[in-house]
Structure formats: structure tokens, C-alpha cells
Amino acid sequence: MEKKRYRFAHFVNDIPLNYKFFLIYFVGVLLPIMIINLVFLDRITDLIRSREQQNLEISLERARKDIHDFIEGGVAVAYTLSTDKNLYEMLDREYKNLIDFYGAYDEQLRDRLNSYMPVNNQIDRISIFTDNRSIVSGGNYQAMNNRVWNSDWYKQLKTSHNQVVVTAYRTSVDGNASASIPALSVVQIMNNFRNYNTYEKLVRIDLDLTEIYDVIAREKDYLSLYLVNEQNQIVMSADSGYQRITDEPYPLFKQLDDGSKEDVHIAPLGTAVYLKGWRIVGITQGERITQAVLDMRLYAAFLATTITLLTSGFIYVMLRSYNYRVKRLSRHMQKVTNEKFELIRIDEGRDEIGGLIHNFNRMTTRINSLINDVYKLEIQKKNLEMERVRAELNFLQSQMNPHFLFNTLNAILVVCTKNNYSDVTDIVKSLSKLLRRLLSWKEDLVSLEEEMSFIEMYLKIEKFRFRDKFDYVFEIDEQSKRYKIPKLSMQPLVENSCKHGLQTIEGLGIITVKAAVEDNRLQITVSDNGKGIEAGRLKELMGAIRNEDSSGANVGLRNVYRRLELYYQNQVRFEMMSTPNQGTVVTFGIPLRLLERLYPFEGEGDV
User: Fold this and answer.
1) 453 contact partners, CB below 8 Å, separation of at least 6
2) 135 in helix, strand or coil?
3) Residue 569: which pLDDT band, with cuts at 50, 70 and 90?
4) Which residue of 60, 280, 369, 509 lies most exposed, with the fewest beta carbons within 10 A?
């Protein structure tokens, strides 16, 4: 298991960064958005279809109820009239003449039917039919004749076994048999009172088809409604209208041939016997559901596209900030491997990548600085070693072979001692000690006290040489004797004073050697009252001393300057001042913190 996990992690680590970002975007953002939108779209499509089906059912039920209420209203009026005993009596009476009928009409019949009209807006007309010949046809009362007996509604009533029928039929227009208009009526036989059954009596409630059409047309946005009777005839539809004059009979309703039963909704008009076979048929407006689904899909597509674009833009900006800086960091790290320490000069930012770039720049700067410092330090060490060797060589080359000279001096010393040459004996002893000291000095750093002892032996020899022509003075602070300085760092200065400063002057020449601690520095001064140096020559001399490539004359001074400079990191103050015919002063100051001491001063402890 661990091995498989390692292989997977290794595989992931090998994928380039651009491909990783693409996979993160595709798998982590785009694919979930697509899946969620597809699932959402499928679910919302089902909800839309379900909602539309409910709307269709509500629409169909609403139309069915309204039409049913219209018919039931007519049936209720017909039932009320068929139970009106006074009406029966008036219709079953034998009237003697017209005056007798009109008198009864005015008193009992004129307004009896019209009183039902205001509260039943769906009723267009109420008619009473009877075969009582003494009744004059007119208004709402009609005497039966062949026209009535041959009418469709009368025939449907007679063929029915019900006392109440709802019939759809056509009536001729102005006696024109070739043209007719549709009609819908509730017809009921009036035979509830046996005592008044002398004549046949019928009540016909003509329904206002405009009201029924308005109901059907009202639902056309949802369904194409058809009012179908028991004979499967289309009585009313949104396409047929209700005032069309035609000689065509009611068309038959045909079921759809494509077998899509879910597009046809059928609801029985009512449960009463007189409504048996009557139904409301609704055909779905397929474009409505399709358009609703299409609108939802377009909306979902727009929403998904917008979200995808916004998230893509956001992720692009975020990942570009990451990818761009990581690539810059990678390229500069590659340059580091090629020993090119370049800084990443971009807006780092304050996130983790910015911190990494900031640390890389600091590391690069530090490495570059360390390399330069180490390189310079190595050069300084090499230069210091070269200067040390050069100083020793220059000193030795200016003299005879020390061993040979030392043996020769011993032979001279033996002769001088035998012949009692006391002056020569002291000088030879000093020279012998000086050479022995040179041969015994192995360290580069010596105490100031040792350096001064060496200089004193050297000056004794020079004084023997020049006799009473010059003298020397030491002004050495006791505190300064405990510090170590590079060996032979003062002798060349004293030698220059002897050779170049005092040889050509008249009178007594004096060389003064001072050492003191001032301003946290060990200050060394060698001065003389010799012939001095002109300003131009002094400037050239200082330039030659500070020039590393200079060679030839003034080797001693240049070696002193270079060795002090290398030892103490360019923090030595080396100065040379001179006035013609007055003398020359050479001084250098070394910071105490850079000097070694032989032992602590009184009151100090070891750290």
C-alpha cells in the first residue's frame, strides 16, 4: 500500500506545473460545474414538466367546473320550473279565447320565467313548450308544432330515457335550412303532477354559448379544450367559435394517431345521468412545455457560462500570480547553479511565494557577499603572506647571508676582545644580537617592547657609524608595550630617517620614536629633524607607497603600509608629513580592538 502511494505521489510530482493547474481547474472547477448544472437541469426539467402537468390539470378542472356549473344552473332552473304547480295549472288550462289567455298571461305567465334570468347569466333563453292548442305561441311560451317535433333537440329528448337531457343541436337561421347555428340546451319533461298531465309540457333552457366559449378560450394558453357530447361530437372548441353559421354538422372528435396519450387530457363533465358521456378534452400545447424547458436550459446555460467565466478568470489571475513567480524563482535558482547570483526584480507580494522570493534574494545577496568577502580575504591573506615574505627577502637581500655574517662577526668579536677594542666589541655584540633576533623570529606578530629592543640595537649600530652626528629618543608609554604589532613595522621607518633624513644635515640629528594609546588607537610616530621632503615629492612618495604594483625605491615604506593595511582591514591611519629643512614625521594608528595583547591590564580579568 505504501509502495502504491509512493508511486502515485511520484507520478503527481512528475506532472509539469502548467498541466497541474489545468487539471486542478478542469477536475476541481469546470467538471463539478458541468455535472452540477446537468443534474440541476435534469431535475429542474422534471419539475417544470410536473408543474406544467399540474397547471394543465388545474386548467382542465377549472374549465370543467365552470361549464358544469353553467349546465347545472340551467338544470336547477328547469327543475324549479318543473315543480311549479301554478305553472302546471296555467299550462294545463283550456282557454276559451285569446282574451282569456292574455288575461292569464298578464297575471301569471309574463314575468314568471324572466325572474330567473338576472341570477343566471349563463342562460340565454327559457322556453316552455306544450301541445295545448288554446295557448298562443309567443315570448317564452310556445305551442308544439311540426317544427318542434322535427327538431333535433326534441328527437334527442324522445330517444332518451331520462327526464332531463343536455342536448347540442343546430337551429336554422331565418328559415334557411342550409345554414344553422350551434345551440346547447337543457330540456326537461314537465310531468311531476299527475293531475295536470292533460297536455305534454317541456321546459328548454338555452345556455349562452358565449359564456362557455369564453371559458374554453380562457384556457387556450394551457390547453386546446373541446366540449364533447355523448355522441363524440365536438360541441364547442376554441377554434370553432360560437356564432359561425354553417351547414356542417358537429364534427367528430378523433383521438390523436401518434399514440402520445400523455398529450390528451379527458375529464368527465359531471356524474349526473343527463351528463353521461359528456366530457372536456384538453390537448396539450406541446410548444408551451418545450418552450418552458428551452427557456430553463438557456437560463441554466447562461448561468453556467457566467459562473465558469467568472471562476476561470479568478482562478487564472490567482494561478498566474503563483505560476509566474514560481517560474521566475526556478529560473533564477538555475542561474545560481551556474554561479550567476542575480536578484529577482519583481513585485514579491506578501504571501508565501513572496516570502520565498524575498528570502531567495536575501540568500543570493548574502552568498554573493560571502563569496566576495572570502575571495577578498583569500587575496588579502595571500598579499599579506607575500608582503611578509617580501619584507623578509628585502631585508635579507639588503644584507649579506645572515649565517655567514653571524659567523664572521663571532670571529671579529674574538679578535676585538683579545686586542681590547671595547667600542668595536660593543657594536659587534649588538649586530650579533640583531642577527640572532632576526633568525629567531618565527611569528609575524611581536610585542611592541620586542620591536623597540630591535630598533634600539639597530640605532646603536647606526650611532657607531655616524658617531656624534645624531642621537635618538624613545618616548614609549608603558601601556602600549603590551600590544603586539607586525614585526619590522617600525624598523624601516627608523632606517629611512637615518639614511635619508640625517646624512646631509649639519649639526646634531635627532630621531624620536613615540608609542602611546590615544583615542582607542595605538599611535606609533617616528620623526626626525632632517632635510625634509618637498610637497611634490611627498605626494609622489605617498602615491608610490599606496600603489600595490609599485616596485623599486621606497620598498621598505610600501611594505610597512601594505602589511598594516592587510593585517588590519584597511582601518590603519598611515600619514606622512614633512617640511623641507625641518624634518619628517611618519605615523600610523591601529585600532586597539584589532590588536592582540600579551596579558590583561590591571583590573581586567580574563573573559
Assistant:
1) 437
2) coil
3) confident
4) 369
Backbone torsions φ then ψ of 19, nearest 5 degrees: -70, -35
Contacts (Cβ under 8 Å, ≥6 apart) of 172: 179, 180
The x, y and z cell numbers of residue 321, run together, are 500570480
pLDDT band for position 606 (50/70/90)?
A: very low
Q: How many CA atoms lie within 13 A of 467 on its CB side?
A: 1
Q: What percent of the chain has pLDDT over 70?
A: 80
DSSP labels for 268-325?
ES-SSGGGTT-EEEEEE-HHHHHHHHHHHHHHHHHHHHHHHHHHHHHHHHHHHHHHHH
| Residue 62 confidence (pLDDT) | 92
Q: What are phi and psi of 94, to 5 degrees?
A: -95, 110
Determine phi and psi for 136, rounding to 5 degrees. -90, 130
Cell (9 digits) for 48: 417544470
Alpha helices in 398-499 (DSSP H): 402-418, 422-440, 448-466, 491-496
Q: Is 576 helix (H, G, I), strand (E, B) or coil?
A: strand
* Secondary structure of residue 193 in the 3-state scheme: coil
The pairs formed by 243-247 with CB atoms below 8 angstroms and a separation of 24 or more are 243/181, 244/181, 244/182, 245/173, 245/179, 245/180, 245/181, 246/179, 246/180, 247/178, 247/179, 247/180
d(CA 113, CA 262): 45
Arithmetic mean of pLDDT over the chain = 79
In 3D space, the residue among 213, 207, 141, 217 whose CA is nearest the CA of residue 169 turns out to be 207
160 vs 201: CA distance, rounded Å: 16
* The residue type at 439: L
| Nearest CA-CA partner of 494 in 528, 517, 464 | 528
Cβ of 239: how many Cβ atoms within 10 Å?
11
d(CA 142, CA 422): 189
CA–CA gap between residue 169 and residue 172 (Å, rounded): 10
Distance CA 216, CA 36 (A): 41
Look at residues 491, 493, 486, 463 and name the one whose alpha carbon lies nearest to residue 587: 493
> How many residues can be counted in the chain?
607
Report the run of H or E that residue 128 belongs to, with start and end: strand 123-130
Distance between CA atoms of 359 and 342, rounded to whole angstroms? Answer: 13
